[in-house]
Amino acid sequence: MNIEDKEQQFKRAFLKITEVKEEVQRFIVGQEEIVEGVLWSVLAGGHTLLEGLPGLGKTMLVRTLADVMDLSFSRIQFTPDLMPTDITGTMVMKQSRDDQHPFVFHPGPLFHHLVLADEINRSTPKTQSALLEAMAENTVTVVGETMTLEKPFFVLATQNPIDLEGTYPLPEAQVDRFMCKILVSYPTKAELKQIIQRTTGTDDIVLEKKLNQAELLSIQDLVKEIMVTDEMIDFAIDLIDATHPKSERTTERIKQYVDFGSGPRGLQNVILMAKARALTQGRYHVSMGDLKKVAPLVLRHRMILNFEGEAMSVGTDELILEMIDYVQKGESR
Amino acid sequence: METQQFLQLLRQMRKKLWVNQLWYYIQLLLVYAGVFALCIVSIAALVVIPYWERILWVGCASIFIGVVILIYRRRATLKDSALAYDRFVDDNRVTAAYSSLHSGHALSSLVVHDALKKMIRAHTEVLKYRKKKIKPSFLLSSGILILLSLLIFTQWDDSFQEANRIEKEKEIIADSNKRITEQAKKKENASIKEKLLRENEELEKVTEATKRYDEIIKKVKELELQKKSIEKQNEKLQEAKKKIAVVENVDKALQEKNSDKFQRAFNQMSKEQRDQLLMALKSQDIDSLEELSELMKESNSVDEQLDQLAKLQDELQNEAEFLKNAIGKSDTTGSDSLAQNSGKATSNQANSKSQANKDPSSSANGNQPGNSNSNSPGQGGNENGAGTGNGSSPEAGNGAGKGQGSREMLSVPEEIEGQNHIERDTGQLGEGEQGERFESTGPVQKGTLRPYEEVYQDYYSSYRKSSDRSMIPKDLEKIVQSYFSEIDPGELVE
Question: What is the model's pLDDT at position A132?
Fold first, then answer.
């Protein structure tokens, strides 16, 4: 493929993404950053953890995205009694006239392109693990038989930050499987007004499908082609290094309040998500702005505060922004 | 094509950056130089540092070279230009494009194309942009530093003048060393050459110009003394020869300059003749024939030795004159010490001159007149006591002044020991010439006039008594002897 064709391919992808974004925002009021964040994550092929109070439109956002991208969608409400097979599917005996009753696999809700794992922290670790296998390997193992999930496969899990009694918080290793964590904030008054106008009237918004499965996979491939210069990689590395409290080149507050920083997967995800953002901006390269924009989303669930940080209610985002500023000023060198 | 255009724009930006850098570093240079100047001037104000100005200039030159190296090393590159361009173009497009040129990425041309588009759009803005070249903080601080340095320089003048004096003194000494070495090299006589170089080696140890001058004068005197000693021995021999000439057959023996032949000639004499000869020798303080033969041996080379000594003395004397002139011109040392030596120098010079006149082979440099004259009367001579030899400085007049004044009469100072008996004839002077009366055999009272010979005798006997009581170092003894022979009335008559 010559460079002109490549340029056209990128342009088409950019247009498609813009259309998807506009279509989603036609239905979802405000939440622009959240929509963008989820979109970047999907384009980069990562899973997303959405955290926010109930009723903020998390499920609606995911459903809308699935509709606009023409992806199959399933929603799993995680409860303490949810079993792994409830999400993965199970072998069931098939009735047959010839007296043979073979076991056939009955796919669970994971066998969809877009899976919404609602309140993931309410289920037991066993069920969470089944989900995490699917997230990491894109496979599901039932009765010793491993089945591959169809691409694209995204999990968008939600967490409720309140009412934590009887919940099973995800262990750090499992949280690390999510490419990013997006905080769903409360809408503004103007947005609330718009929400009321759109949802309580008689008008029904019909969403158009702007993308299909194949196009999405193609765009995912284009994301990987985006150029990242050495300077940008170095900057991302410095960022990851600065998340560690034992690093000599980090802020004092990180040294004081952080117990563990991000691992290499965090770095991979920063770069991938920055690439996805670059594409959504119509660029062929990753910029400093991309890295700065995606860093809080990718790193906030990878930085574990220590007891002092928790006790002082230190905000991880605040630490990350401080750290970005520190690294950018070159103080880390 | 696009790549060339892209690089062209970067080069334009680089030129702008170079100009800015140059301005920045020139101002930085001023600050550094100011700091350095203040440090050096402050230290030089507290501690006397010879050649502090040289240190200052060398330091400033080093800072200049350092800054030039710094400018070269930190000169803006195309990458810096790309970074600078990125201020006018969003999303690090230019740096990404520049990096992509070297990375060979598949999307490189797209990245460059994209960046170039934005750069052309931002080009007018880039051209309009003028970075502030003058940094007031730099200029102000360098100005303050230089002013402070000047203030210290003008207020602590003593240290700087002292440093200046030391510098001049060092230069004088170096010149003197060089002169002596050059003179030595010119000499054909190996012995004189060697002696002169040896003397210079000793003189090199002296670090002060006045002390060096003193040292040279001392050496001149020592040479003078050596000459006199040789002359005296020669005279003694001549005298002895006259005395023993009365003894028969001794003429023939005396004609034998070879001492062995003289011994053989002596052996051939009769016992009576031998006794006569020995008696004659004893009358001349020659105790043995060995001593006589020794004297005879030495007498063979007397002329040569005297010639060598005179030449050496001339060289040193000339050097002393050069040195004195240089010190006088440089106005570095106090004139007092030099003035005290000056009289002695002149006296020696006179001796040197007489010797030079005796010796036709000498270069007769001793004819140079003493170049400094005192305005004050010397204390030594009470008649025509215009003693020579104060320095050329305006404060002249403190010299001892025992130069060429008459020494027939000497005045014993009245108040040398405090309470004294002072007699004074008071009253108005009448017409006619002023006269003085003295009695050589009368009791000595302070403030009275006494004959020079008498004072000399007293002085000499005091010296003999004290030298009998205690040992005097050999060098010093020579000097003292030289001094007494110098002021000996008998010598002066000659």
Answer: 84
pTM of the model: 0.62
Residue among A227, A288, A293 with most chain B CBs within 10 A, to mutate = A227
| Alpha helix positions (H), B129-208 | 136-155, 157-186, 190-204
Burial of residue A107 (number of CB atoms within 10 Å: 0-12, 13-18, 19+): middle
Asked if B41 and B49 touch (Cβ cutoff 8 Å), the reply is: no
pLDDT in tens, B82-127: 988 888 988 889 999 998 888 878 888 889 988 998 999 888 888 8
Please name the residue that has the structure tokens 């790549």.
B3
In angstroms, what separates the C-alpha of B208 from chain A's closest C-alpha?
A: 57
Contact A120, A128 (CB under 8 A): yes
Q: For residue B45, give the amino acid letter.
A: A
Tell me which of B207 and B123 has the higher pLDDT. B123
For residue A81, give Cα distances in angstroms to A76, A85, A123: 13, 11, 7
Confirm if A34 and A182 have CB atoms less than 8 A apart.
Answer: yes
Could you tell me the two tokens for B241? 């020869």
Q: CB contact, 8 Å: B87 with chain A? A: no
Closest to A316 in 3D by CA, of A261, A235, A274, A272: A261
* pLDDT tens for each residue of B251-296: 666 665 556 666 776 777 777 777 777 777 777 667 676 676 666 6
Q: What are phi and psi of B84, to 5 degrees?
A: -65, -40
Q: What is the DSSP string of A276-317?
A: HHHHHTT-SB--HHHHHHHHHHHHTTT-EE-HHHHHTT--HH
Count Cβ–Cβ pairs < 8 Å, chain A vs chain B: 58
